[in-house]
Design a protein that fits this description.
mainly alpha; 0% strand; 241 residues; elongated; single chain
Length: 241
């Protein structure tokens, strides 16, 4: 059945996002005492093994196809949602939701890899004999040329798709309860803030993957939506008989 295929695609996409979460931990879980050295560089990059950043970038590449299929499926079922596209407001938020997934597919993976390159560049410069501060300055200067553009796209991607998600949940455009409001990047990022305030290093390191967690939960919620949609169609057919 089509709904079973849709659910499978979203489950596969969730695995892709789990890989992203692992990549986030490898990249950003810097441990105790980490401090910023300007716009991008961090003090604890020195004690973090190079393989972590290489593995993090590799996981993003491996996650590319699962995430592509899941986001493409999310766009498809959104476009086919007649209840959503029946009004101008619904059409606007439906298109915003689709745009967020397009940006995730075309830009999200690349953004993660760029973030992995910064510490690799930093460690390579130090291995070549450049002092720590000069290496950090080089990374910060290089990153400053594109960081604003990348962050704008990041905000459109995460906040745009989350705002559209809230609209669809509140207006009942998806077969999901209000619990699904938690299943998007902005919600998990909001949860991240109070957890980081807990004076334990575990929470500071663990929550660096919460943005990816929001996408993972969204895929799982969409799988639930597909299953509920199929159940409602089946019930309607049974009534007609």
């Amino acid at each position: 059945m089509k709904s079973n295929k849709t659910k499978l695609i979203f489950y596969i996409g969730s695995i892709g996002m789990l890989l992203f979460m692992i990549g986030d931990w490898l990249l950003d879980a810097a441990g105790a005492g980490d401090e910023e050295m300007g716009l991008i560089a961090h003090t604890n990059w020195l004690q973090m093994a190079m393989w972590r950043f290489v593995a993090s970038a590799t996981l993003a590449l491996v996650a590319l196809l699962p995430v592509f299929f899941a986001s493409n499926e999310a766009i498809r079922i959104t476009r086919e949602n007649a209840a959503l596209y029946g009004t101008k407001t619904g059409k606007f938020w439906g298109n915003t939701f689709c745009l967020g997934h397009i940006l995730l597919m075309t830009y999200g993976i690349g953004f993660h890899i760029i973030l992995c390159i910064y510490p690799m560049f930093h460690k390579t410069l130090i291995a070549m004999g450049i002092d720590v501060q000069s290496a950090a300055d080089a990374v910060n200067k290089t990153g400053s040329y594109t960081l604003i553009q990348l962050m704008v796209l990041y905000l459109i991607c995460d906040i745009g798709v989350s705002a559209a998600w809230y609209y669809m949940i509140f207006k009942g455009k998806l077969n999901l309860g209000k619990w699904a409001l938690l299943c998007c990047p902005f919600s998990t990022i909001l949860i991240d803030f109070p957890l980081k305030m807990i004076p334990l290093q575990f929470f500071k390191d663990f929550t660096v993957a919460f943005e990816s967690l929001g996408w993972l939960l969204m895929y799982l919620a969409l799988a639930r939506h597909a299953g509920m949609l199929e159940e409602s169609v089946t019930e309607e057919r049974m009534k007609r008989k």
